[in-house]
């Protein structure tokens, strides 16, 4: 099961998180986020974990520039990027995680037009912002998903979520995305809290 820790800002904090055995590290390149970093601020290259660069409605030029500079393994698109945008990036050899804000079963239907264009989907809580709300949506909605693209479950997952995560089953569930509920403050993760969660979930 993939464990992704998103919204990392500090190199030493990120190094300590990676040492816990996480699989993906997310850096947010969206200026509207309290966890925003620029490519000039990023001073950490993972030894084992995959590096995920997160964007909200970027230009293709911006994505390609940052992928080139930081060596992204994946690009996570967290805005309203259309399928054509994903297709164009994919044609350039860029691996894609497409996020979908979820509140109702109708929101799940939006994944259909992205079939075959993304490596993973990410299902997050629908809010007025773009992720990082610390709020959980109704995971029962995800059970209506019948696509073939594997997904990461996100939105309000915290230390107390382990029983619910162990009960949640779906054939395309690939992993979990952790963020705001493991923070000391935005962009800095509580390493002992992460360690305890990882030990229990694995």
Overview of the molecule:
This protein is α/β, with parallel strands linked by helices and 202 residues long. The protein is 24% helix and 23% strand. Strands 1-2-3-4-5-6-7-8 form an 8-stranded parallel barrel. A two-stranded antiparallel sheet has the order 9-10. Strand 1, helix 1 and strand 2 form a beta-alpha-beta unit.
Secondary-structure blueprint:
Blueprint: E1 2-5, H1 11-18, E2 24-28, E3 50-55, H2 60-70, E4 74-77, H3 83-91, E5 96-102, H4 105-108, E6 120-125, E7 151-153, H5 162-167, E8 173-178, E9 183-185, E10 188-189, H6 191-201
Give start-end ranges of low-pLDDT stretches. none
Structural class of the helices, strands and pairings?
Answer: alpha/beta
Number of strands: 10
Q: How much helix, percentage-wise, in residues?
A: 10-25%
**Terminal residue distance:** 8 Å
In sequence order, what are the helices and strands, one letter per element?
EHEEHEHEHEEHEEEH
Gyration radius, to the nearest Å? 16 Å
Tell me the number of helical segments per DSSP (H or I, 4 or more residues long): 6
Name the quaternary structure.
single chain
Biggest sheet character: 8 strands, parallel, barrel
Q: Which sequence of strands runs across the widest sheet?
A: 1-2-3-4-5-6-7-8
Instruction: Provide the residue-averaged pLDDT.
Output: 94
Shape: globular
What share of residues are in beta strands? Answer: 15-25%
């Amino acid at each position: 099961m993939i464990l992704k820790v998103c919204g990392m800002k500090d190199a030493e904090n990120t190094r300590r998180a990676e040492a816990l055995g996480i699989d993906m590290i997310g850096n947010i390149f969206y200026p509207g986020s309290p966890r925003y970093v620029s490519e000039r601020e990023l001073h950490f290259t993972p030894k084992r974990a995959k590096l995920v660069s997160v964007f909200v409605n970027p230009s293709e030029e911006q994505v390609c520039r940052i992928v080139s500079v930081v060596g992204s393994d994946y690009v996570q698109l967290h805005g309203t990027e259309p399928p054509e945008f994903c297709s164009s990036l994919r044609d350039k050899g860029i691996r894609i995680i497409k996020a979908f804000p979820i509140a109702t079963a109708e929101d799940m239907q939006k994944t259909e037009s992205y079939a075959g264009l993304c490596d993973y989907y990410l299902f997050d809580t629908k809010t007025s912002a773009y992720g990082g709300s610390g709020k959980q949506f109704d995971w029962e909605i995800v059970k209506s998903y019948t696509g073939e693209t594997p997904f990461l479950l996100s939105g309000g997952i915290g230390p107390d979520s382990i029983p619910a995560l162990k009960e949640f089953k779906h054939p395309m569930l690939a992993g979990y995305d952790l963020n705001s509920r493991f923070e000391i403050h935005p962009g800095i993760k509580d390493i002992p809290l992460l360690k305890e969660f990882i030990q229990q979930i694995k």
